[in-house]
Amino acid sequence: MKKYSFVFGAAAVLLIMLFVSCYTPSPLYGTWSDNDGNKIQFVDDGTFSANIKDSANNLVSYSGEWTVVDNVLIFSIKGDTTYTRNTEWDIRGAMLYLTWTANNTTKMLTLYHVSR
Under a CB-based contact definition with an 8 Å cutoff, are residues 40 and 50 in contact? Predict the structure, then answer.
C-alpha cells in the first residue's frame, strides 16, 4: 500500500510542477509610457487605463478591459459607449510598439516599460 501512495504522491507533485512551469504571466503587465505623456497601465485582472494624446495634443483618458490573442491586443474601451479596438503589438526589449485608434484618431506608439 505504501508503494501505491508514493506513486500517487509523486504523480501529483509532477502534475503540479508541470502546471506551474507552463504558466507564464503576460509580458504586458505593468505601466508603459513615453516622453510625450502617453501612458498605458495593464493590470493582471484584465483591466487597463490609458492617457493618450489626441490630434490636438490634449491628453485623453481611457479605461476598460484588455485581452491578447497571439499578437493581437484587444481593447474594450468603456465610456459613454463601449467599443472594441484591435491592434497588433510587439515587444522588443523593454519597448512596446502598438497602434492606438480611438475617436477617429490613430497614433503609432512606442512605449517603454517603466514599472511592473
Answer: yes
Q: How far apart are CA 84 and CA 95, in angstroms?
A: 24
Question: How many other C-beta atoms lie within 10 A of the C-beta of residue 109?
Answer: 22
How high is the mean pLDDT of the chain? 84
Q: State the average pLDDT over residues 8-34.
A: 70
pLDDT at 71 over 70: yes
Q: What is the predicted pLDDT for the residue at 2? A: 57
Question: pLDDT at residue 78 above 60?
Answer: yes
DSSP the chain: -HHHHHHHHHHHHHHHHHHHHH----TT-EEEE-TTS-EEEE-TTSEEEEEEE-TTS-EEEEEEEEEEETTEEEEEEESSS-EEEEEEEEEETTEEEEEEEETTEEEEEEEEEEE-
What b/e string do you get for 23-52 counting C-beta neighbours within 10 Å, with b at 16 or more? eeeeebebbbbbeeebbbbbeeeeebebeb
